[in-house]
Amino acid sequence: MSQNTTDQFFNNSVLGHPAGLFVLFFTEMWERFSFYGMRSLLILFLTTSFADGGWEWTRENASALFGSYVGLVYLSTMMGGYFADKVIGFRWAVVVGAVLMTLGHASMAVETEFSIYLGLLLLVFGNGFFKPNMTSIISEMYKDRPEKKDGAYTLFYMGVNAGAFFGILLCGYLGEKVGWSYGFGLAGIFMFFGMLQFWLSQNIFGDIGLKPNKESVAKAAALDTDKRNPFTSWQLVLIAISSILGLLWILNDPASKISGGKVNVFGFLGENGNSIAIVSALALFIILLVYRFTQYSKITREKLIAVTFFAFLTIFFWAIFEQSPNSLTIFANDYTNRILEGNWSVVFLVMNSLITILPLTIISYVLYLMFKRTFKDYALANIILSVSFVIIWTIAIWMLAKDYYTAGYLDLSDDTLALLKIDKVTTALTEVPATWFSTLNSLFIITLAPLFSKWWESKYNPSANLKYGIGMGLLALGMACIAFGANGIEAGAKTASVSMIWLILVYLFHTMAELCISPVGLSYVSKLVPARMIAFMFGVWYLAVAIGMKGAGMFGENIDKIADEHGLSYFFWMLTIISLVVALFSIAMTPVIKKLMHGVR
C-alpha cells in the first residue's frame, strides 16, 4: 500500500483502528454521559414539589424551557462549527466546549434560580463548540482510509450510546434517589474527566484540528475547486433578521410563560406576538431558501429540494421522538406503576445488574487495550481516564447494592449502611426510577443497530421515502402503545398506576424508528448536496432538528390542557395520528422525490 498523510495514525492501532479514535471514543462517551444524564433529570426537577427539592413548576412552563434548551443546543452547533473552521481549530473548540459544559453542570448543581439558568446557557454554548467538531476530527483522521470509516463511526457511536446509557442510569438514579444536585454534579465531574483526557492526549492527532493558519487556509482553498455562489448583501440582511427574530422567539417563549407575561419582547405585537415573530422569521428564511435554489442548475436544484423535503419530515420525527425526556418521563413518574414485588422484583434486579455490569466490563476492556498502546506516551491522560472508571464502577456497584438491600435481598449491618450512606429501610421495596426507562433507547440501539445495518446493505434496502415512512410508522406504533395503556386514565387525573410494559414497548418501537430515520437523514445530505453547499445545507438540516426539538417542548406544554379536557390517552393518540399522516405522506411522495434525487439511493 502506498503511504499517505494518515498512515501514521494506523501505526499504533487498537482493534484495527488508530488509538486516537479511542481517545475520541472516551471523550465523547463522557460528554454524552453528562448531556443525557442532566437532560433526563431536567423536567422531573422542574416539576417536582418544593418538599421533594424541586421547583414545583407547571408542566407547561417546564416543557417550554426544555424545548428552548434542546433547540438552542442544535442551533449553537452552527456557531461552534464556524469558529472551529475559521478561528480556533477543532481541538480548541472541543476543549472550550468541554470547559463550558463542565462549568454549566457545576452551576446547575448549586440549584439556585440564577445558577440553573446560567448552567443551561453554558451548556448550550458548550455543546455548540463540542458537538460538531469531534466527528470532524474522525473525518480528517480517516480521509485516506475511506474503507475503514464506517467501522470507525460504528465504534464511535457505541461510545455515544454507552455514555447516554450510563448517564441516564446513574445521574438519573442519584438525582431521583439521593438528591438533584448529586445528579447534576455527577454529570459535570465526568465531563471534566473527558476534557482532561482529551487535552492531555491531543498530540495523538498530529496536525489534525490545529488552529487555522495562512498555510493551512491556502492549502484548503487550493483543494476546493468548486464554483462559489456567495451571499449578496440583501441575502445576508434576510439571514440576520430571520436569525435575530428566531433567537429572540426561542428565548422569549419560555421567558414570557414563566414570568407570567412580565417579560415579553414581542408584547408590542399584541397577544399573538410570539407567533407573529416566529412565522415572520420562517417566512423570510423560506424566501431566501427558495431564491438560493433558483440560482443553481436544474439537477442541483432538484436534489436540494429533495434534501429540504427530508428535513421537513425530520421536524416531525424529532418533535415526537423527543417526548422521551418530556411527556414520557412525566408519564413514567406520575402515571406508571413502578413498584415491583416477588418474582418481578428479582427479574428487574438481575436484569438491571446485567445491563450495568456487562457494558461496563466490555468498555473497561477497551480501556485496557488503549492503556497498553498509549500509556508510555500519555501516562497522565490514561491515569485520569482510569480514575474515572474506578469512580463509575464504584457508583454502579453502590447503586446495585442499595437496590438489593432495599428490595430485601441483601443484609447490611448498621455500620455498613452508615459507611455506604444508605438509609435504613424496614419494608422491602423495589421501585424502578422514572428515568430508568430512557436507558432502554441506548440499550435497544446497541442491540438492534447491527440488524438494521444488515438490512440496509441487503437487496431489500428500502428507498429513502420508504425508510422515513417505516420510521414514522414505528413512531406511530409506539405512541399508539402508550395511548392504549393510558386509555383508563380519567380526564384531569394527576396520578395513575399503568403497567410498565407500555413504556417498554414505546421505547422499543421508537428506537427502531430512530434507526430508520436518524442516521439516514445526514447520509442523504452528504450524498445529494454539492461540496460547495454542504455547510449551508447542514445548517438547514440542523435548523430543522432545532425546530423539531422546540416542537417537542411545545407538544409537551399542552399535555395538561389536553389531559384535563379529554384525558391523557387523547394526547398520545394525537401524536400517533400525526406520525401516521407523516408516514403516509412520505410514502406517497416516493415517485416525486425519487425523480428529484436523480438516481441517488
Automatic annotation (TrEMBL):
<dbReference type="GO" id="GO:0005886">
    <property type="term" value="C:plasma membrane"/>
</dbReference>
<feature type="transmembrane region" description="Helical">
    <location>
        <begin position="151"/>
        <end position="175"/>
    </location>
</feature>
<keyword id="KW-1003">Cell membrane</keyword>
<dbReference type="InterPro" id="IPR018456">
    <property type="entry name" value="PTR2_symporter_CS"/>
</dbReference>
<dbReference type="GO" id="GO:1904680">
    <property type="term" value="F:peptide transmembrane transporter activity"/>
</dbReference>
<feature type="transmembrane region" description="Helical">
    <location>
        <begin position="344"/>
        <end position="368"/>
    </location>
</feature>
<feature type="transmembrane region" description="Helical">
    <location>
        <begin position="380"/>
        <end position="401"/>
    </location>
</feature>
<feature type="transmembrane region" description="Helical">
    <location>
        <begin position="181"/>
        <end position="200"/>
    </location>
</feature>
<keyword id="KW-0472">Membrane</keyword>
<dbReference type="InterPro" id="IPR000109">
    <property type="entry name" value="POT_fam"/>
</dbReference>
<keyword id="KW-0813">Transport</keyword>
<keyword id="KW-0812">Transmembrane</keyword>
<feature type="transmembrane region" description="Helical">
    <location>
        <begin position="468"/>
        <end position="489"/>
    </location>
</feature>
<feature type="transmembrane region" description="Helical">
    <location>
        <begin position="114"/>
        <end position="130"/>
    </location>
</feature>
<dbReference type="GO" id="GO:0006857">
    <property type="term" value="P:oligopeptide transport"/>
</dbReference>
<feature type="transmembrane region" description="Helical">
    <location>
        <begin position="63"/>
        <end position="83"/>
    </location>
</feature>
<dbReference type="InterPro" id="IPR050171">
    <property type="entry name" value="MFS_Transporters"/>
</dbReference>
<keyword id="KW-1133">Transmembrane helix</keyword>
<comment type="similarity">
    <text>Belongs to the major facilitator superfamily. Proton-dependent oligopeptide transporter (POT/PTR) (TC 2.A.17) family.</text>
</comment>
<protein>
    <submittedName>
        <fullName>POT family proton-dependent oligopeptide transporter</fullName>
    </submittedName>
</protein>
<feature type="transmembrane region" description="Helical">
    <location>
        <begin position="570"/>
        <end position="593"/>
    </location>
</feature>
<feature type="transmembrane region" description="Helical">
    <location>
        <begin position="534"/>
        <end position="555"/>
    </location>
</feature>
<feature type="transmembrane region" description="Helical">
    <location>
        <begin position="90"/>
        <end position="108"/>
    </location>
</feature>
<keyword id="KW-0653">Protein transport</keyword>
<feature type="transmembrane region" description="Helical">
    <location>
        <begin position="303"/>
        <end position="321"/>
    </location>
</feature>
<dbReference type="InterPro" id="IPR036259">
    <property type="entry name" value="MFS_trans_sf"/>
</dbReference>
<feature type="transmembrane region" description="Helical">
    <location>
        <begin position="234"/>
        <end position="252"/>
    </location>
</feature>
<dbReference type="Pfam" id="PF00854">
    <property type="entry name" value="PTR2"/>
</dbReference>
<dbReference type="InterPro" id="IPR005279">
    <property type="entry name" value="Dipep/tripep_permease"/>
</dbReference>
<keyword id="KW-0571">Peptide transport</keyword>
<feature type="transmembrane region" description="Helical">
    <location>
        <begin position="501"/>
        <end position="522"/>
    </location>
</feature>
<feature type="transmembrane region" description="Helical">
    <location>
        <begin position="434"/>
        <end position="456"/>
    </location>
</feature>
<feature type="transmembrane region" description="Helical">
    <location>
        <begin position="272"/>
        <end position="291"/>
    </location>
</feature>
